[in-house]
């Protein structure tokens, strides 16, 4: 196996917001390369060089120049003269011209003819003046020297000195040196014992320089000695990264978690004998501006450990590496500076960049890892902890893992919140040799490139992706907000782009949201994004708060506005580059967007969707940095965002805001799990893509009566006549992989970039893995199509949902002919077994041609053999193969004298002679060519078949969509069997006249999330509910004892409505419902103390949202409103809110409360007074004991019996007794308070709802810090006025 060497190809190590690199050295001592001012020191043992280096042999010294010549060399007199300089490493002379002379350093700047510029101390160099090449005497030091030993690299040592000087003289240039060596090829077995052999070395002769491209993005170009830039790639990311690669050496910044290195196969080398160093020149390319060395910016909790990384080590690790790390990385602690030298605290300090001292860069060294991914320095500490790896021997932190563990370890690191940069070898030693011969470059190492940037939101590989259906979304957001502008109370425009990388799905949209961002919060609570992409410092405080409070520790990516987070115009321009093919007319591509996906075309032509397009632009830029844009976009699916904002003229879904999703525990419980959730109750899907669709259905119930009826009909079919078909359908798909993700991975496999690129050198058989994915996709598509075809008899009713789904060409795509063609093309099982495709005849004409040629040649050989048998009159003459010699004519020894003259003897065997004839040799030559052509075509057949498969990607996705919907419908049919008690199909009251009111009638209503197998039969007490309709109140005021079941009833009603509008059966004997457009649920007590919001303020803010957004068709469930303040104030606010909802909004609602006076004094016909029944008895000490009946009963409850709950909680009996006495005293004095006369009501009588209007103003004003004091005063006044109003009435 060929050795693997450090890349000299261009590698994008620097981005606009980060330096994705890793720095490491063999010891804390300075670089072994001598400098003009530092004496040589004996190299110390290190992990990279465990044995002391031998003293390098002294090279032959050239004759010393005469004193007068030396003086001439050191002044400016030679500026402008041409000369040749000898490079020992390359054993070559390079011509150039002296451009300038620096008297302080006594160095001349030489520009070579190939464009390279170098600072040279001519007194220490071997050179020739152009005019003296032919006649200069040997003693003048200009005679071409003899070929030096191959290991002597004095030239590189001098380069290190020049780099140090350049670093001191220019603040914009950072130079560094490291060890250098030449490479040898050959096989090695030392990789298999990599943990025992820690000898590593650096072997690259390359220059790394910053480059500003046309978009002003900063990149790193790894240049050859000829100065030719290779493999340019611009990257940007704002958070820490772990960089690692396969068998390569990468340079990295320690600004985040230090970097890692990779290199060629390991072998022991005496680094000291090389007498060399490595130069890294960070210079501006194609620009005259200043260049900053950028390092990744930390996110959240990861920033602090980074800055004090040396202090974070503990135990044995701290004892082993602590002192070394503290000395080596002082610039990360108290001495931390940004690229401009500014310290933290400076107003201009940029935390995204890091200043790297020149002496640190000069200590860089490399390593050999073979086929292992390995980590150094801070990276080593991270992966040793996170992956439970062992450190290798030596002073330098160093650990790694073999290539076979790549996917599992990459996924572990990404899931834990790290950004992982993958560097791979993209050239073999043979390709390097060929490139050197063809281009004349002097590269000594193979190319290596960044092939992937992986985070928890950009994972595309890993076994858990096929096992765990939960998506990890990227969430990009833009907003119509200007810094410093006054808050707009009329709403804000929010643009959103949601990306599921694992399925290549983009959800794009724009909506109007209220000042509290309830629409945005609803989306965030539903999807729980893994990463957020946003323009830095361009979002309003309210939006930033929503992003923080409705997510679960996502990675935050702050992009530079316009430059990185593109505006609409830039986004449109970039999108056109992805979809505009080379044959698209220029005029058409500029003015017509028909070649774009339908949704993008609509957004662009609408003209007012600039924020949606900008959000899409931010996500595209981020995907470009992760090298995923070209993988995802060609076969991407673009979906329209289901509008969750305030204004939605054509509403097709019920809106469930964040409070409803969380309080009802619809998708996840309070701990982030699934236990007890509505999703867990309904999830009986057998496919991963079906589970994802079910979640979307639950989070967005239908607000379309016809669509609900169609789902009900399909579910009834699967519960009735189609039950056996449903069982067989589930059985057929039970072992199906996650086809949506598998297809997306296969669609992206044809991308020519990243790790799927043909140029990436991997030890594993990538083509075999791709073949297994292809055959798995084929089998999966065949299983899905057959499963759908097997239940096609259920499509009897025209226009039904099942008819639309299962009718070929209507819902079910025409894929049978494609599958038949691919099935006839090759044997799927045989291909899996042997690891390659052997196409059947007729599959590929280009492959068939050499096959036919081979058959004809073999036939000619057989025919020729028969002729030779007749000629020699011996039927025993035959062909034999000996080693590489094939089709040798074997003739018995007895016929040796009678063979024709054209027989050429090739070999002998006892009793036989073996010959070739000119005819046989010609046929063998033709056969060899035909077989080579056949093998070449065979290598391309897999890619051809995959490309043929991908041409129909829309059909395969449509097939997945149909199967997912059928899976969900069957799951809902099964879920109804697990409800406690009877179930029914809800009756949906589609429309009603102006005199009708919203309706909700339920008889024997059970609980949707209580399973029949979790409780004994009849354990749950069902209830009858009647709200709205003729003769019924629209609101229920619910009282009852603590723990009596009030909150349970509220959740029960809300969840049942969601079930009904999904289209599922509900746990009741009968259920009638008018469609609900939005559900508001105010339950529980919580504060947002970090935002300065108390429990009561949060409660009032949520209530204000209900009052401002609810419509006649909404459902409101308020649980114990007003408990966050005094009894009188809370009761006053609760009464005012209730009255507003009943008389102004006129919606359906449930209002549970412990304010019994509120219920006792209510005489409104639109309000029904109910309570949860209980039985009271006397217990020990005369204390009341309550038996809960959990039955909804008309009338109000006299008290809450809180002392009973205290008894159940274990409060001491003496305390309970005293509490009971005080309760009696309070109740006795409650009714004796003197009422305030109506004359004191003042202006409160002028406007019946003045208090509630003022409440709106108070809550809205609380968002402004400067108005909070005034708002608190106003809140106190509103409470007093509301109390006076209630008491007065």
From TrEMBL:
Q: Can the keyword DNA repair be found in this entry's annotation? A: yes
Ranges for domain DNA mismatch repair proteins mutS family come to 1033-1224
User: Gene3D superfamilies attached here?
Assistant: 1.10.1420.10, 2.30.30.140, DNA repair protein MutS, domain I, MutS, connector domain, P-loop containing nucleotide triphosphate hydrolases
Sorted keywords for this record are: ATP-binding, DNA damage, DNA repair, DNA-binding, Nucleotide-binding
GO-annotated cellular components: nucleus
- Give yes or no: UniProt keyword Nucleotide-binding: yes
In alphabetical order, the GO MF annotations are: ATP binding; ATP-dependent DNA damage sensor activity; damaged DNA binding; mismatched DNA binding
Q: Where is the composition biased (Basic and acidic residues)?
A: 66-76
Q: Which residues form the DNA mismatch repair protein MutS core domain?
A: 673-1013
Q: Which GO terms describe its biological process?
A: mismatch repair; pyrimidine dimer repair
Q: Which InterPro entries match?
A: DNA_mismatch_repair_MutS-lik_N (IPR007695), DNA_mismatch_repair_MutS/MSH (IPR017261), DNA_mismatch_repair_MutS_C (IPR000432), DNA_mismatch_repair_MutS_clamp (IPR007861), DNA_mismatch_repair_MutS_core (IPR007696), DNA_mismatch_repair_MutS_N (IPR016151), DNA_mismatch_repair_MutS_sf (IPR036187), DNA_mmatch_repair_MutS_con_dom (IPR007860)
Q: Where is the composition biased (Pro residues)?
A: 44-65
This chain's function reads: Component of the post-replicative DNA mismatch repair system (MMR).
Q: Which family does it belong to?
A: Belongs to the DNA mismatch repair MutS family.
What name is this protein filed under?
DNA mismatch repair protein
Tell me the organism. Leersia perrieri
């Amino acid at each position: 196996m060929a050795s693997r060497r450090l890349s000299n190809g261009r590698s994008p190590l620097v981005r606009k917001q980060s330096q994705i690199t890793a720095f490491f050295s063999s010891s804390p001592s300075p670089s072994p390369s001598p400098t003009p001012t530092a004496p040589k020191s004996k190299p110390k043992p290190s992990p990279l060089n465990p044995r002391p280096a031998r003293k390098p042999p002294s090279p032959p010294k050239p004759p010393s120049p005469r004193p007068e010549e030396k003086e001439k060399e050191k002044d400016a007199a030679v500026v402008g003269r041409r000369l040749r300089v000898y490079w020992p490493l390359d054993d070559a002379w390079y011509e150039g011209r002296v451009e300038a002379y620096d008297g302080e350093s006594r160095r001349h700047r030489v520009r070579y003819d190939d464009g390279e510029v170098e600072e040279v101390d001519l007194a220490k160099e071997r050179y020739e003046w152009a005019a003296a090449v032919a006649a200069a005497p040997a003693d003048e030091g200009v005679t071409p020297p003899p070929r030096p030993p191959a290991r002597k690299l004095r030239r590189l040592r001098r380069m290190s000195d020049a780099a140090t000087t350049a670093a001191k003289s220019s603040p914009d240039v950072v130079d560094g040196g490291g060890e250098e060596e030449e490479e040898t090829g050959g096989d090695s077995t030392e990789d298999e014992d990599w943990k025992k052999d820690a000898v590593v070395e650096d072997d690259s002769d390359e220059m790394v320089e910053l480059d500003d491209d046309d978009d002003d993005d900063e990149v790193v170009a790894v240049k050859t000695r000829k100065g030719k830039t290779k493999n340019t790639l611009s990257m940007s990311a704002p958070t820490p990264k772990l960089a690692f690669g396969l068998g390569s050496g990468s340079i990295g910044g320690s600004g985040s978690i230090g970097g890692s290195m990779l290199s060629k196969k390991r072998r022991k080398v005496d680094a000291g004998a090389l007498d060399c160093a490595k130069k890294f020149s960070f210079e501006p390319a194609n620009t005259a501006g200043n260049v900053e060395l950028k390092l990744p910016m930390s996110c959240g909790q990861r920033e602090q450990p980074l800055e004090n990384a040396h202090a974070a080590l503990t135990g044995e690790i701290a004892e082993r590496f602590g002192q070394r790390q503290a000395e080596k990385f002082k610039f990360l602690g108290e001495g931390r500076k940004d690229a401009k030298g500014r310290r933290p605290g400076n107003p201009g300090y940029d935390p995204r960049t890091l200043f790297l001292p020149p002496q640190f860069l000069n200590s860089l060294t490399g390593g050999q890892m073979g086929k292992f991914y390995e980590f150094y320095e801070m990276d080593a500490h991270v992966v040793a902890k996170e992956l439970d790896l062992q450190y290798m021997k030596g002073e330098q932190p160093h650990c790694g893992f073999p290539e076979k563990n790549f996917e599992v370890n990459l996924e572990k690191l990404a899931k834990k919140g790290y950004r992982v940069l993958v560097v791979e070898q993209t050239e073999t030693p043979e390709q390097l040799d060929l490139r050197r011969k063809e281009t004349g470059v002097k590269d000594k190492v193979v190319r290596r490139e960044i092939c992937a940037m992986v985070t928890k939101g950009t994972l595309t590989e890993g076994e858990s992706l096929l096992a765990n259906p939960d998506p990890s979304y990227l969430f990009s957001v833009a907003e119509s907000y200007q810094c410093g502008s006054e808050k707009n109370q009329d709403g804000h425009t929010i643009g959103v782009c949601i990306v599921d990388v694992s399925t290549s799905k983009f959800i794009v949209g724009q909506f109007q949201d209220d000042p509290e961002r309830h629409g945005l919060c609803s989306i965030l609570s539903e999807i729980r994004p893994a990463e957020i992409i946003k323009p830095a410092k361009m979002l309003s405080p309210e939006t930033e708060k929503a992003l923080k409070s409705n997510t679960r520790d996502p990675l935050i990516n702050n992009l530079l506005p316009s430059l990185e987070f593109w505006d609409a115009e830039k986004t449109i321009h970039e999108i056109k580059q992805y979809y505009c093919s080379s044959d698209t007319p220029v005029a058409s591509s500029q003015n017509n967007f028909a070649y774009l996906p339908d949704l993008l075309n609509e957004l662009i032509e609408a003209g007012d969707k600039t924020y949606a397009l900008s959000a899409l632009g931010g996500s595209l830029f981020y995907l470009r940095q992760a090298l995923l844009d070209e993988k995802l976009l060609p076969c991407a699916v673009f979906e329209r965002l289901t509008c969750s904002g305030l204004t939605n003229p054509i509403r097709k879904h019920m809106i469930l805001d964040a409070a409803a999703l969380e309080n009802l525990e619809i998708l996840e419980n309070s701990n982030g799990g699934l236990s007890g959730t509505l999703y867990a109750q309904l999830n009986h899907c057998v496919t991963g893509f079906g589970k994802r669709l079910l979640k979307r259905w639950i989070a967005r119930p239908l607000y379309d009566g016809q669509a609900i009826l169609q789902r009900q009909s399909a579910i009834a079919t699967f519960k009735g006549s189609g039950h056996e078909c449903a069982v067989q359908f589930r059985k057929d798909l039970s072992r199906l992989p996650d086809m949506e993700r598998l297809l997306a991975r296969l669609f992206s496999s044809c991308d020519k970039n990243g790790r799927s690129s043909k140029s990436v050198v991997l030890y594993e058989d990538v083509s075999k893995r791709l073949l297994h994915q292809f055959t798995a996709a084929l089998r999966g598509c065949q299983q899905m199509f057959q499963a759908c075809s097997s239940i096609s008899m259920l499509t009897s009713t025209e226009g039904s949902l099942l008819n639309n789904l299962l009718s070929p060409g209507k819902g079910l795509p025409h894929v049978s002919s494609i599958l038949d063609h691919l099935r006839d093309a090759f044997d799927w099982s045989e291909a899996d077994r042997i690891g390659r495709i052997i196409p059947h005849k007729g599959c590929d004409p280009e492959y068939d041609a050499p096959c036919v040629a081979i058959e004809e040649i073999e036939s000619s050989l057989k025919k020729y053999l028969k002729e030779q048998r007749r000629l020699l009159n011996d039927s025993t003459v035959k062909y034999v193969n000996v080693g590489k010699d094939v089709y040798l004519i074997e003739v018995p020894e007895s016929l040796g004298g009678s063979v024709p003259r054209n027989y050429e003897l090739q070999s002998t065997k006892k009793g036989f002679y073996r010959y070739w004839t000119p005819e046989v040799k010609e046929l063998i030559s033709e056969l060899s060519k035909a077989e080579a052509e056949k093998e070449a075509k065979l290598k391309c057949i897999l890619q051809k078949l995959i490309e043929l498969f991908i041409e129909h990607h829309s059909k395969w996705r449509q097939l997945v969509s149909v199967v997912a919907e059928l899976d969900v419908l069957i799951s809902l049919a099964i879920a109804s069997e697990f409800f406690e008690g009877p179930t029914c199909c809800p009756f949906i009251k589609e429309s009603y006249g102006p005199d009708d009111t919203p309706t909700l009638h339920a008889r024997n209503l059970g609980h949707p999330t209580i399973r029949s197998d979790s409780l004994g039969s009849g354990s749950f007490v069902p209830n009858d509910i009647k709200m709205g309709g003729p003769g019924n109140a629209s609101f229920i005021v619910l009282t009852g004892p603590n723990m009596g079941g009030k909150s349970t009833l509220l959740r029960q009603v809300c969840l049942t409505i969601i079930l009904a509008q999904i289209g599922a059966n509900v746990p009741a004997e009968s259920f009638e419902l008018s469609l609900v457009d939005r559900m508001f649920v105010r339950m529980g007590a919580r504060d947002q103390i970090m935002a300065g919001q108390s429990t009561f303020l949060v409660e009032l803010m949520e209530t204000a949202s209900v009052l401002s957004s609810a419509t006649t068709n909404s459902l409101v469930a308020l649980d114990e409103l007003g408990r966050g303040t005094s009894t009188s104030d809370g009761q006053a606010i609760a009464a005012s809110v209730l009255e507003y909802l009943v008389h102004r909004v006129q919606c359906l609602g449930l209002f549970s409360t412990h304010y019994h006076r509120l219920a006792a004094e209510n005489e409104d016909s639109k309000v029904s007074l109910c309570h949860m029944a209980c039985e009271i008895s006397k217990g020990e000490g005369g204390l009341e004991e309550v038996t809960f009946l959990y039955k909804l009963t008309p009338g109000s409850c006299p008290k809450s019996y809180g002392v009973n709950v205290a008894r159940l909680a274990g409060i001491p009996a003496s305390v309970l007794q005293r509490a009971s006495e005080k309760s009696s005293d309070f109740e006795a004095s409650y009714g004796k308070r003197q009422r305030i006369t109506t004359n004191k009501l003042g202006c409160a009588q002028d406007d019946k709802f003045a208090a509630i209007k003022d409440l709106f103003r108070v809550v809205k004003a609380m968002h402004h810090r400067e108005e909070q004091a005034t708002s608190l005063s106003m809140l106190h006044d509103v409470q007093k006025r509301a109390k006076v109003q209630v008491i007065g009435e």
